[in-house]
């Protein structure tokens, strides 16, 4: 019903559309169809609730709810900073970044939906109608997200006064238009510099980088906002910020609430803020849109394997994999499971987008729990941390990476190809699973643990080596526990939305194992002999559990399903 009102409002300007060669009725049909598809399309928020439903309704409104929560966090930043100019600059910087991230996350379905080229263009639909429908769809989709993010900030601004509230609405409008423009510019530049296939790779890594950035900002911004460096801070003194759009937008608010004391630079920034969306819209409609449609055609011509990374591991990299597989998995079936896991984990974009951010989460968690929560300066907390046993927390946090990889290594959108596993005369499927687990350890966990260990030795000295060995063996044993109870599937053989209930209690028990052992490790760290003995015991326990995992039967897999 709400979508119907939105479309009716958009189509109030029929006479203007006709002057540009747009058919209003065709435009109504295209927009209503696209918005229905938006509500039915699964997304990152609705997939958790999807279960066995074949259709997701009101998915976009669920997304808006979660964006409202994110906007509430941004509003806390707006209220915490006493200088409005600084507060609005930071707020709209976060607003535009979040809007761009959400657009990129919905990239295939909204911004470069290549299905339009096959469904709409063969119909008697004019090029103008097609282009305007795409721009309006992106605009409506983005406006809904912008409204959700800015809702709490809007309420806060109107609470400060009607002038502040009305100016905030104008700021949101300008920030939304500029966000769409900047995302289009980024895409077209990347498409011009790279091939369509590499462009898909770029989007995947772009998602990874921004998801890590948002995660890090969530934990670090509150501490930075309370820092004394923001007190009596004049943002206009930093000349390089003159190129930042959020700086122009914040100048509008400064001009509205402090008109009498506003300087010349504030007036200039305000004029730029008002002119920038007009120029951006002209560039998008007249310059960028035609080229964008041509690039879409080149993307669709490159194939529909949107979940496959272009590099598949050839030459020296594959030779390295074969050498490692022969060394750690000499048995033929284990060797096959090892290579399948190694190769497919390098090919699937969806796997990388879900797993790779976990590698960055560990240092963020460490810095946050290590000294960001403590009082005093960051430098003083860092020096105090070097004198304690915080390296134990760091190395045990690496098990989070191992858990993330194991939870996704058996899932893929292309799971129907897994019939090959069940057509082979395997007596014990555990041999393939053992090869999969070894690949996860060797390719992901071990290199990452070595990097963290090197950092720990540099900071805390060689005395921590035996602690690192113990932590690694605890991590390996914990990984086997996760594999035994939560990963009942061959490498990349199960649908992503597969949810197995009834294991909540088991999950808590499994998580409690490294948590409890980590506390014991911290308590016993002062006794070197105790750590050495514990490392030997954990090595034996990990080997016994892995031997049991290698004997997994077909009956065990069927019971898990």
How would you describe this structure in keywords?
mainly alpha; 2 domains; 75% helix
What is the compact description of this entry?
The protein is mostly helical.
Largest sheet: none
Query: Tally the helices: what do you get?
Result: 25
Q: What string gives the helices and strands in order?
A: HHHHHHHHHHHHHHHHHHHHHHHHH
The stretches of 5 or more residues where confidence is low (pLDDT under 50) are 43-57, 498-502
Distance between the termini: 40 Å
> Approximately how much beta-strand content do the residues carry?
under 5%
Write down the overall mean pLDDT: 75
Per DSSP E runs of 2 or more residues, the count of β-strands stands at 0
Inertia-based shape: globular
What oligomerization state is this entry in?
single chain
Domains, number = 2
Share in helix: over 70%
Return Rg in Å: 27 Å
Structural class: mainly alpha
Structural notes for this entry:
- The protein is mainly α.
- The protein has 2 domains: 38-46 and 55-301, no CATH class; 320-560, no CATH class.
- It has 25 helices and no strands.
- Helix 5 (84-105) packs antiparallel against helix 8 (127-160), helix 5 runs antiparallel to helix 10 and helix 21 (430-460) packs antiparallel against helix 22 (465-486).
- The protein starts with a helix and ends with a helix.
What layout of secondary structure does this protein have?
Blueprint: H1 2-10, H2 14-19, H3 24-40, H4 59-80, H5 84-105, H6 107-111, H7 115-119, H8 127-160, H9 162-193, H10 196-225, H11 245-257, H12 264-301, H13 316-328, H14 332-347, H15 349-355, H16 357-372, H17 378-386, H18 390-397, H19 399-408, H20 419-422, H21 430-460, H22 465-486, H23 504-524, H24 528-550, H25 554-560
């Amino acid at each position: 019903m709400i979508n119907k009102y939105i479309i009716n409002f958009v189509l109030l300007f029929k006479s203007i559309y006709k002057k540009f060669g747009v058919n209003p009725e065709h435009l109504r049909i295209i927009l209503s169809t696209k918005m229905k598809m938006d509500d039915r399309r699964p997304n990152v928020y609705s997939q958790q609730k999807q279960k066995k439903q074949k259709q997701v309704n009101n998915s976009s409104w669920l997304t808006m709810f979660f964006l409202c929560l994110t906007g509430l966090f941004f509003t806390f930043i707006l209220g915490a900073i006493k200088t409005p100019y600084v507060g609005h600059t930071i707020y709209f910087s976060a607003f535009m970044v979040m809007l761009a991230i959400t657009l990129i996350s919905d990239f295939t379905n909204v911004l470069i939906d290549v299905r339009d080229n096959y469904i709409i263009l063969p119909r008697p639909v004019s090029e103008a109608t097609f282009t305007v429908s795409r721009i309006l769809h992106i605009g409506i989709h983005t406006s809904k997200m912008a409204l959700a993010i800015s809702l709490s900030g809007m309420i806060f601004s109107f609470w400060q006064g009607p002038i502040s509230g009305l100016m905030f609405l104008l700021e949101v409008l300008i920030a939304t238009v500029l966000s769409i423009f900047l995302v289009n510019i980024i895409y077209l530049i990347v498409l011009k510099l790279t091939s369509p296939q590499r462009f898909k790779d770029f989007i995947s890594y772009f998602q990874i980088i921004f998801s890590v950035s948002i995660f890090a900002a969530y934990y670090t911004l509150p501490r930075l906002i309370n820092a004394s460096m923001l007190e009596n801070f004049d943002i206009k003194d930093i000349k390089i910020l003159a190129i930042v759009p959020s700086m122009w937008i914040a100048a509008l608010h400064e001009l509205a609430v402090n008109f009498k004391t506003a300087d010349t630079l504030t007036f200039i920034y305000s004029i730029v803020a008002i002119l920038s969306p007009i120029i951006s819209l002209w560039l998008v409609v007249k310059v960028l849109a035609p080229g964008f449609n041509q690039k879409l055609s080149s993307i669709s011509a490159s194939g529909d394997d949107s979940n496959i990374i272009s590099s598949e591991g050839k030459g020296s990299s594959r030779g390295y994999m074969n050498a490692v597989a022969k060394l750690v998995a000499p048995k033929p079936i284990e060797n096959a499971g090892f290579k399948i896991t190694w190769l497919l984990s390098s090919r699937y974009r969806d796997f990388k987008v879900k797993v790779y951010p976990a590698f960055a989460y560990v240092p963020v968690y460490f810095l946050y729990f290590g000294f960001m929560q403590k009082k005093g300066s960051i430098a003083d907390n860092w020096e105090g941390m070097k004198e304690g046993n915080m390296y134990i927390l760091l190395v045990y946090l690496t098990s989070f990476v191992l858990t993330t990889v194991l939870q996704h290594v058996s899932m893929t959108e292309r799971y129907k190809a897994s019939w090959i596993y069940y057509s082979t005369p395997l007596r014990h499927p555990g041999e393939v699973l053992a090869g999969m687990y070894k690949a996860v350890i060797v390719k992901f966990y071990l290199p990452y643990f070595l990097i963290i260990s090197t950092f720990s030795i540099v900071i805390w000295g060689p005395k921590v080596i035996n602690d690192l060995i113990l932590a690694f063996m605890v991590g390996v044993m914990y990984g086997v526990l996760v594999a035994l109870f939560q990963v009942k599937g061959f490498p990349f053989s199960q649908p992503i939305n597969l949810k197995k209930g009834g294991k909540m209690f088991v999950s808590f028990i499994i998580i409690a194992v490294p948590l409890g052992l980590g506390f014991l490790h911290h308590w016993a760290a002062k006794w070197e002999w105790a750590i050495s003995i514990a490392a030997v015991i954990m090595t034996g326990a990990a080997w016994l559990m892995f031997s049991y995992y290698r004997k997994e039967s077909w009956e065990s897999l069927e019971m898990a399903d």
